[in-house]
Amino acid sequence: EPTAAVNDGLGLDEAVKAATLSTPEYRQCPHPYYKVLREQAPVVRLTPRHGVDTYLITRYEEAHAALADPRIGKDMHEGIDLYHALFGDACETLDDNLLFADPPRHTRLRHIAKTAFTPRHVKDLRPHIEELANELLDRCPTDEPVDLMKAFALPLPVMVICELLGIVGVERTEVLKWFSVVTRSRFSKDMKDDLVEAEHWLRDYFTEHIRCTRANPTDDFLTVLVQTRHEEEALTDDELVSMIWVLLFAGHKTTTLQIGNSVFNLLTHPEQLRALQEDRELMPQAIEELLRYEGSVETSTFRYALEDVEIGGTVIPQGAIVQIALTGANRDPEKFPAPDTLDITREHLQREHLGFGFGPHFCLGAPLARLELEICLTALLDRFPDMVLALPDSDAGDWLKGPFPAFRGLEKLPVA
Ligand code: HEM
């Protein structure tokens, strides 16, 4: 990481500009920029985006406070113009979910989702995830380099969520096909028609899937989700559709990229990899440290100031967008000593990182994500103890960073 080199001579203006424009250098490695911002302007106004003032928070204490601040909201209906600026004609039914809701609606949706998503449902997925991980690794060639993102990290999480939602067989293939159209087209201006077609297909399919679940109840996750009530009220069909959608969307790329980041950072820190190989009891804390060191969610999802809010000495005016740099906060030396050092034996503050967010929107799928990471890393360490990076010398920089706004991760991970 070029942290030290880039920091020499990097000024505040340059850091703000890089963050506003999301320059290639910033996207490649935002840590030096976050360092300057944390030190000099932990709550900074960026040049307006989509015509709306945007404030970026990079220091742990302020980030932590903002994530739980009820004066900073998320409801898309409060800022519907921004919603259209961001997502164009995307299907609102899908996005009308708990990630973009405030109390009391969020409380209700979250309560039902949490009641349905029991530890048993997560535990029951273990054998399936283990089988899936091993099947995918069986297919990896051992005599030539393989792109671990494509072969392993990409397919596994989305299949796990399909399993959780009872989407199986041919239907799963169809859902994955349309879902991949959405992930490819969501941030592309040229693919709006594809996006609309795919989102409508998924909405109709989920509606039918819910109808079938109601007609044939079992004890699976979706049945419990359909039947659970909060203050006498169950979820409506539209709410169920958007809940399925958010689980698929929020649980897919995040986990894919986190698997990639974790493997990459272990392979580039051989002493840490060796320590983990020699003592597997370190696995749970290694997973937390890898989430802190390079979490796959770079900035939290959009929030708005519902009123003027003072944070870290800066007044964020009502209506402004608030962006919280989770990866910046996770490298704050005031919170985590020697933050740029990956140290899987760090026990202290293990679960205080913001890799899964904090407050009312704390990641609903964190227990499942932790299980997936544990199974994936264990399978790789067991089966390929001699795995190394297979770096193409010429374009080492290019494959490192995928073009994913708000995420941090690898597009490719060639290993041998
Ligand atoms: C929320 C990270 C895996 C479902 C979040 C948030 C973060 C996050 C940072 C909060 C966003 C914000 O406050 O703006 C991650 C990471 C994962 C992961 C790093 C993998 C390593 C999953 C999985 C699922 C999931 C596997 C589902 C099966 C959700 C949902 C929310 C959420 C539903 C919204 C919760 C709410 O708004 O109340 N996640 N996530 N996530 N995550 Fe995850």
Which key terms come to mind for this protein?
416 residues, 5-stranded mixed β-sheet, 9% strand, binds protoporphyrin IX containing FE
Please, could you describe this protein's structure?
The chain is α+β, with helices and mostly antiparallel strands. It is 54% helix and 9% strand. It has 21 helices and 11 strands. The strands form 4 sheets. A 5-stranded mixed β-sheet has the order 1-2-10-7-3. Strands 4-11 form a two-stranded antiparallel sheet. A two-stranded antiparallel ribbon has the order 5-6. Strand 8 and strand 9 (314-316) form a beta hairpin. Helix 2 packs across helix 4 (31-40), helix 10 packs antiparallel against helix 12 and helix 10 packs parallel to helix 20. It is globular and about 60 Å long. The two termini are 22 Å apart. It binds protoporphyrin IX containing FE (HEM).
The total count of helices amounts to 21
Strand order of the largest sheet: 1-2-10-7-3
- Give the rounded overall mean pLDDT: 89
First-residue to last-residue Cα separation: 22 Å
- Helical content (DSSP H or I, runs of 4+): 40-55%
Kindly report the oligomeric state of this protein.
single chain
Protein name: Cytochrome P450 107B1
Family: Belongs to the cytochrome P450 family.
GO molecular function: heme binding; iron ion binding; monooxygenase activity; oxidoreductase activity, acting on paired donors, with incorporation or reduction of molecular oxygen
Keywords: Heme, Iron, Metal-binding, Monooxygenase, Oxidoreductase
